[in-house]
Design goal:
Blueprint (H helix, E strand, L loop, with lengths): L1 E4 L4 H10 L7 E5 L5 E5 L7 E5 L6 H17 L4 E6 L18 H12 L3 E5 L14 E4 L2 H12 L4 E5 L5 H11 L2 E8 L7 E6 L6 E9 L3 H12 L5 E8 L5 H7 L4 E5 L14 E4 L2 H12 L10
Parallel strand pairs: 1-4, 4-5, 5-6, 6-7, 8-9, 8-11, 11-12, 12-13, 13-14
Antiparallel strand pairs: 2-3, 9-10
This protein binds ribose-5-phosphate.
Length: 310
């Protein structure tokens, strides 16, 4: 078993390799002058099980192309099998036709990764569980909910908690977290008048005098969360904490969070945001390296991955 690091999140790759007590595969990943990706594997990997780690985060197209070319290089170097470890699976939000004559890019990307030569996928909190079915190879989808629940119990230590889904799509995830911390749930009825814009229509459930925990898979522009916090506060919520797996944090998102009434936003390192958040007072990162490396170990040893979440 060997681990190859893509360049989208070098820190996470190093942390995973160190947890596994492995050296990263010696490789050369660079760009030609015109931006094309070049990948060379500098050691023998014939007959090895290879885990290639690459989040398809911003710049999504470059990082996706790099992943595909890494897989192609591994396949042509006679790897025995290739697991694409994609902590943040980009393009996942286009998982259905939202209007006539639109693409389903999550399916297209799944086809590209499979056709490049991946034998298995390992990802974290896929935007929608059914994306697993877009692949005809095994997919292991890890959850950050148990890690978030542990953090709430150890660090937040508040009573009178309620978990809040920032939109209807997040209800399942919110219910899973509420079960682990033994709280009730509320649901925000969110509307998207245009891509990138969101409005809160209603809140289902009472949040008055409660400490709210909003949980979501992605924070991108920050609009969904900032509007949700505003609406919760207007309905008499006490402190609002936010737990997000993938911090895309585009544009002014960090500034919006800092200015908002969010008490604390806790996220993970599926996307490397070290530079973006270095001056942030509200954003805290929890590393998923231990969970991802444990899943890699279990896949390599053909033992259960799902039992990680029991
Ligand atoms: C949408 O269904 C996702 O779960 C997130 O709520 C969304 O992507 C967040 O986007 P933004 O931060 O731009 O509102």
């Amino acid at each position: 078993m060997k681990v190859l690091a893509g360049t989208s999140n070098s820190k996470l790759c190093k942390d995973i390799a160190s947890q596994l007590k492995l050296k990263l595969v010696n490789s050369n990943i660079k760009r030609f002058a015109d931006g094309e990706v070049y990948v060379e594997i500098n050691e023998n990997i014939r007959g090895n099980s290879i885990f290639v780690i690459q989040s398809t985060s911003n710049p999504a197209n470059d990082n996706l192309m790099e992943l595909l070319i890494c897989i192609d290089a591994l396949r042509r170097s006679s790897a025995k099998n290739i697991t694409a470890v994609i902590p943040y699976f980009g393009y996942a939000r286009q998982d259905r036709k939202v209007a006539p004559r639109t693409a389903i890019s999550a399916k297209l990307v799944s086809n590209l990764i499979t056709n490049a030569g991946a034998n298995r996928i390992l990802s974290v909190d896929l935007h929608a569980g059914q994306i697993q079915g877009f692949f005809d190879i095994p997919v292991d989808n890890l959850f950050s909910t148990p890690i978030f629940a542990r953090h709430i119990k150890k660090k937040i230590k508040l009573n009178n908690l309620i978990c809040v889904a920032p939109d209807v799509g997040g209800v399942e995830r919110t219910r899973a977290l509420s079960r682990r911390i033994n709280s009730s749930i509320a649901i925000i009825d969110k509307r998207r008048p245009a891509p990138g814009k969101s409005e809160v229509m209603n809140i289902v459930g009472s949040v008055k005098n409660k400490n709210c925990i909003i949980v979501d898979d992605i924070i991108d522009s920050g609009g969904t969360i900032v509007n949700a916090v505003y609406a919760l506060k207007n309905k008499g919520a006490k402190d609002v904490y936010v737990y997000i797996t993938h911090a895309v944090l585009s544009g002014e998102a960090v500034k919006k969070i800092e200015k908002s009434q969010i008490k604390k936003l806790i996220t993970t390192d599926t996307i490397d945001n070290t530079k973006k958040i270095k001056n942030s007072k509200k954003i805290e990162i929890i590393s998923l390296a231990p969970m991802i490396s444990e899943a890699i170990k279990r896949i390599a040893n053909s033992t259960s991955v799902s039992s990680l979440f029991k």
